[in-house]
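Throughout our pipeline, every protein is held as a single compact record rather than as scattered files. Such a record has a labelled line for the sequence and another for the backbone structure tokens. The remainder of this section carries one protein's record, kept here as part of the documentation:
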Amino acid sequence: RGRSAAKEGSGDMAVANAIGSNVFDILIGLGLPWFLYGVIKGKPFIVATDDLLVYLGQLVGTVVLVTLGFISSGWYLGKVMGMFLACLYGVYCVYAIASEEI
């Protein structure tokens, strides 16, 4: 009892949970406040889209790399795949910090 899905050998359930919770967070965590802003203020919330293509490229690149990683591991979330995902996140963190304007 109380063991995580990943520890029980159901890494796919753990990944699905992580992805599903992020989708929920984005839809509710961003969508609901923006919707309420529009209802209360009577005008739409303007989202800056200057770097939209850069963010879209990051998203597509991440999806491709993660999918290829899972395909190459036989859809098994083991230590190697975990390290790959951690390294991918590390690369993103370095990029995010390096590209931040001070």
Q: What stands out?
A: The chain has a mean pLDDT of 85.
